[in-house]
Design brief:
The protein has about 70 residues and is mainly α. The protein has four helices and no strands. The longest helix is centred in the middle third of the chain and has 35 residues. It is rod-shaped.
Length: about 70
């Protein structure tokens, strides 16, 4: 079964129609939301790793309240 060959004009017309489709907009929004949640997950994982390293170095939340302590480097 051969595919139908469509002209450049037909390609452009279909692109215009699909860009205004509510279904396309819905799918695009869904993709953005999923990507944003995944990026948030990666961010939380990085924060957990950093927190574990700080805890292993003996840093506590109470220490972070001390302005003198904040001047030290890790």
């Amino acid at each position: 079964m051969a595919r139908e060959i469509i002209s450049d004009e037909q390609v452009e017309q279909e692109i215009q129609e699909l860009q205004s489709s509510e279904f396309v907009k819905l799918a695009a929004k869904y993709g953005r939301v999923k990507k944003k949640r995944r990026m948030y997950l990666y961010h939380l994982r990085q924060q957990e790793k950093a927190g574990r390293r700080l805890a292993e170095a003996g840093v506590t939340i109470e220490l972070l309240s001390d302005p003198e302590f904040l001047e030290t480097e890790f």
